[in-house]
Amino acid sequence: MAVAMTSIELFAGAGGASLGLRAAGWEEVRAVEWDKAACLTRRAAGLRCDEGDVRDPTLTDGIGEIDALWSSFPCQCWSSAGKRLGATDERNGFPWTLDAIDRIRPRWFVAENVPGLTHHRGECTGKGPPESCPGCYFLAYILPELERRFAWVGWAELNASSYGVPQHRRRIYIVGGPRPIAWPAPTHASPDEIRQGGLFGPRLLPWRTVREALNLPSSAVATGGGSNPRGPGRAHERTERDLTDEPATTVSAVSAVSAGNNEMRLRLSD
User: Fold this and answer.
1) Average pLDDT, the chain
2) Is 77 a catalytic residue?
């Protein structure tokens, strides 16, 4: 009988990563989250929830050997939708993640975050101190600190729509462990990419679309998008496009400033 791999999740949120770990056959022995609404969502979904602060060592005491630690440390410090204060932001949860790694000593480590974590600020030359910008912190602090703790460290930017999810959601994944891994090859692509593919390339499936995900009738049209600034100090201009037959978009930096600016709308054609 196969023994389930064990995992701990920090900044566990409402349960997206937990569902993936469960589907992969992992046994989640801790899932630490302090937001009460997220904890309620987890429990309603039948997921484990250890409500509390990831900095509290008692939440992970006495758990024995752990195969993997997953950390979805807060993205607000690095996201283009915010001020990008980076390491100086009080919500920077990566040092807390390192503390947990040192306490728990998992065989593997996985983290996910926004692509902005790897991007340099506009005025940065890429050679500044780690605290100067997100990209510098990533290259000069995050990766070296993980390399001190794991024999191999790698990272990649993956888009959920490339794996059958009906949403464009790009995220950075960082993995540390005893040996290199093979990153998953895309399984889905846009119809245009599929048509332009080589004769002997991988057989990719078309993107999963909003229509498929919501089981929309042929008469329905889903529109969405965001708001684009017209210029300095000027109002934002609303832009919309038909999302029915492609993956949904995510919140853009400019539309995140006002709630409701990029909701998806459905209408029935005449």
Assistant:
1) 83
2) no
CA 166 to chain centroid, in Å, comes to 15
- Out of 49, 75, 77, 136, pick the active-site residue: 75
- CA dist 145 and 148 (Å) reads 5
Residue 258 has pLDDT above 70, yes or no: no
Q: Is 224 helix (H, G, I), strand (E, B) or coil?
A: strand
Report residue 257's pLDDT band, with 50, 70 and 90 as the boundaries: very low
Edge-to-edge strands, sheet with 220-229: 236-242, 220-229, 265-268
Assign residue 211 a region: left if phi > 0, alpha if psi is -120 to 50, beta otherwise?
Answer: alpha
CB-based contacts of 67, cutoff 8 Å, min separation 6: 5, 6, 7, 26, 106, 107, 108
Radius of gyration of the chain (CA): 21
pTM of the predicted protein model: 0.83
> What are the Cα distances from residue 145, in Å, to 32, 84, 151, 171, 253?
22, 21, 12, 21, 30
Q: Where are the alpha helices (DSSP H) in the chain?
A: 16-23, 36-44, 94-104, 134-137, 143-147, 191-196, 210-214
d(CA 211, CA 245): 6
CA dist list (Å): 137 to 93, 120, 150: 13, 9, 18
Cα distance between residue 109 and residue 9, in whole Å: 10
Q: Give the whole-angstrom CA distance, residue 165 versus residue 252.
A: 19
Tokens found for residue 150: 């794991």
Cα(157)–Cα(174) distance, integer angstroms: 9
Question: Measuring CA to CA, which residue among 185, 157, 162, 172 is closest to residue 247?
Answer: 162
